[in-house]
TrEMBL record:
GO terms for molecular function: DNA-binding transcription factor activity, RNA polymerase II-specific; sequence-specific DNA binding; zinc ion binding. It is found in: Nucleus. GO terms for biological process: positive regulation of DNA-templated transcription. PANTHER family: ZINC FINGER PROTEIN, ZINC FINGER PROTEIN 271-LIKE. Keywords: Metal-binding, Nucleus, Repeat, Zinc, Zinc-finger. Residues 28-55, 56-83, 84-111, 112-139, 140-167, 168-200 form the C2H2-type domain. Its main location: nucleus. It comes from the Eukaryota. Signal peptide: none annotated. This is Zinc finger protein 84. GO terms for cellular component: chromosome; nucleus. PROSITE patterns: ZINC_FINGER_C2H2_1 (PS00028), ZINC_FINGER_C2H2_2 (PS50157).
Length: 205
């Protein structure tokens, strides 16, 4: 076969690599999004994304994943394996993406920029949270009263108004609070903000 009998196309595999494909070779196309694959096994793997089939299960916590590689990454949360290390401060990470994000703390790189106010961010998650301040999007909703929140952490705090959970306790009088900020305000009644019993006992009378 000479060079004219072959063509090179970018095929949408998970690895996103260029594969040499014969002109008359049969493609396997996704009925949902139309993406084409040179091998049927790649199509089957891709279909799981649409079907959200989670065929791979964690033997420890039974959490399921659609991709086997995602399961392997998840297992590190149980083994505490951290194969990616920062060359600057030697801090270790279980995910390569986490290492890449961490490196920006050393380089001060901020690749995510807000089109509205031009504020820059090092992390995409921080950027996404910031965007909601402009759009007023509230994707996190309370199942009890349907109140919406822009941040999941705000929803978690709100849920305590329904459950009466008070996870923050005063070291001095053992009074409980639903919010850490309320506990800090309470500590000021002892004359030392944000401090516990050990420091208060040491205060001269």
């Amino acid at each position: 076969m000479n060079e004219s009998d072959r063509s090179v196309e970018t095929v949408n595999t998970d690895k996103n690599v260029e594969i040499a494909v014969e002109k008359d070779k049969k493609y396997f196309a996704c009925d949902i999004c139309g993406k084409k694959f040179c091998e049927k096994q790649f199509l089957k793997k891709h279909i799981h994304i649409h079907k959200k089939e989670k065929l791979h299960s964690c033997a420890v916590c039974e959490k399921r994943f659609s991709q086997r590689c995602d399961l392997f990454v998840h297992l590190r949360t149980h083994t505490n394996e951290k194969p990616y290390s920062c060359d600057v401060c030697q801090k270790d990470f279980s995910h390569k993406g986490s290492l890449n994000e961490h490196l920006r703390t050393h380089t001060n790189e901020r690749p995510f920029s807000c089109d509205v106010c031009q504020k820059d961010f090092s992390y995409k998650s921080s950027f996404n949270r910031h965007i909601r301040t402009h759009t007023n999007e509230k994707p996190f909703s309370c199942d009890v009263c349907r109140k919406g929140f822009s941040l999941k952490s705000h929803l978690n705090v709100h849920l305590r108004t329904h459950t009466n959970e008070k996870p923050y306790s005063c070291d001095v009088c053992h009074k409980d609070f639903s919010r850490k900020s309320h506990l800090n305000v309470h500590y000021r009644t002892y004359g030392k903000p944000n401090h516990g019993a050990a420091e208060i006992v040491a205060t001269p009378l």
